[in-house]
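Hello again, I could really use a second opinion on something today. I've been puzzling over a protein and I'd love to understand its fold better. I'm sending you its amino acid sequence along with the backbone structure tokens. It would help a lot if you went through both lines with me. I've dropped the whole record in just underneath, so have a look.
***
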Amino acid sequence: VQLQESGPRLVKPSQTLSLTCTVSGDSITGNYYYWNWIRQPPGKGLEWMGAISYSGSTYYSPSLRSRTSISRDTSKNQFALQLTSVTPEDAAVYYCYGRKFGEDYWGRGTQVTVSS
């Protein structure tokens, strides 16, 4: 299973960050997969943002819930992240990540800068 993030790498403050993760090698609707977004700001640890399950259920970090939306396009085997009202504190490397029964699959990550 391979994952690849895509989307703009530069976002202006107050705008919406939108990223897509394209999955190959298996279906995102395959049983028991959970598809996650995780980020790592400069000099900080990994932060889990949220996930969408194989059945389409969504889960969000309480600290980001009000600004985060995760969706999927099963026809394209993709899932997506939207983060609204970004600030410079949202600058980070964003990773998509899949998990199934302890097997982990990571994208390479994409650096997102927030700047006017």
About this structure: The CA atoms of residues 16 and 46 lie 21 Å apart. The first strand starts at residue 2 and ends at 6.
